[in-house]
Automatic annotation (TrEMBL):
Entry keyword set: DNA-binding, Transcription, Transcription regulation
Originating organism: Amycolatopsis jiangsuensis
Source superkingdom: Bacteria
Residue intervals of the HTH lacI-type domain: 2-56
InterPro entries for the chain: HTH_LacI, LacI/GalR-like_sensor, Lambda_DNA-bd_dom_sf, Peripla_BP_I
Protein name, entry field: LacI family transcriptional regulator
Single GO molecular function: DNA-binding transcription factor activity
SUPFAM superfamilies noted in UniProt: lambda repressor-like DNA-binding domains, Periplasmic binding protein-like I
SMART domains xrefs: HTH_LACI
Amino acid sequence: MVTARQIAQLCGVSVATVSRVFNRPATVSAATREHVERVARDLDFSPNEAARALSRQRSTMVGLVWDTDHRRHSWRHPFLQDLLLGLKSALSSRGYHLLMLATSDDSGSRNPGASLADPVAYVSMTRRHHLAGLVLIDSGTDAEAFSAFAHSGLPCVALDVALSGPRATYVTSDNASGAADAVRHLAALGHRRIATITGPHGNVPAAARTDGYLRGLAEAELPFREDLVVTGDFYRESGFAEMRRLLARADPPTAVFAASDEMAVGALLAARAAGCRVPDDVAVVGFDDIEVASLVDPALTTVAQDKRGFGTAAAGALLSMLDSDEVPEPVRLPTKLVVRDSCGSQR
């Protein structure tokens, strides 16, 4: 294994200079830095991460707090997979590594200090790992733990949770506006009985999309009907079940806004099973614009989120806090209505 001392000898500089090249490059002249980096690349030299963290008094590890209980669907959601790619890529470009922190699996066997049910112990664990910061993904029941993280002084960025604290901020999409755009589009096509399949109770994006649905109805001067609001869980099976309930009504909706594409695909399947044609008998709009939205038949009209941009923005907010004492303002990413074949005019 090539050492820093060998690199120093080959370059004719001191070991301290080699260390500064990789840890405090601004303190080394451009010519020396380029020479050392070129020799290091040729010899496949990689400075030890632990030594770098100590010399810089900063870890290069960022913790991802996410409940990955195998009985939950969330870790398999296509939207989150794309988001993680954006997050990892942006952090890696700055030399940071992403460490997923395991939470309780609720099986009766707990890893001490690694359960969101015990947030104080969890914060203590993050400090033992000398993490530079945290990215937090809410499972729907993590409010107490997230509050503890936000007030720990460790840089934190939450996804879709309005987190506040001395070193905390968050990234979200404009969920309400996106949902309102979907409802206005359906109203413009002549639909008057527009239903929604919401996300789960207690979920922040789900609540915002329901608010947007209500706003869209109001702006289109359509009455709110409680019987046209049903609750899903963002996944296909619930979309199928709730669409069947809606279509079984004596006065079924002519259009349905589902708060996720997964539920919208389930709704399409339920409509087909009930003998309804989409969009002739019922129009369907989703939310997210995951890959399957353009592959189903008919192709799904949906509200697109910037999935990779979401992760990139979260990384950018965290890196900003790591580079300075400033806490960036929350980021609200725009959404875009993508019109495909699952919507038609109401005749």
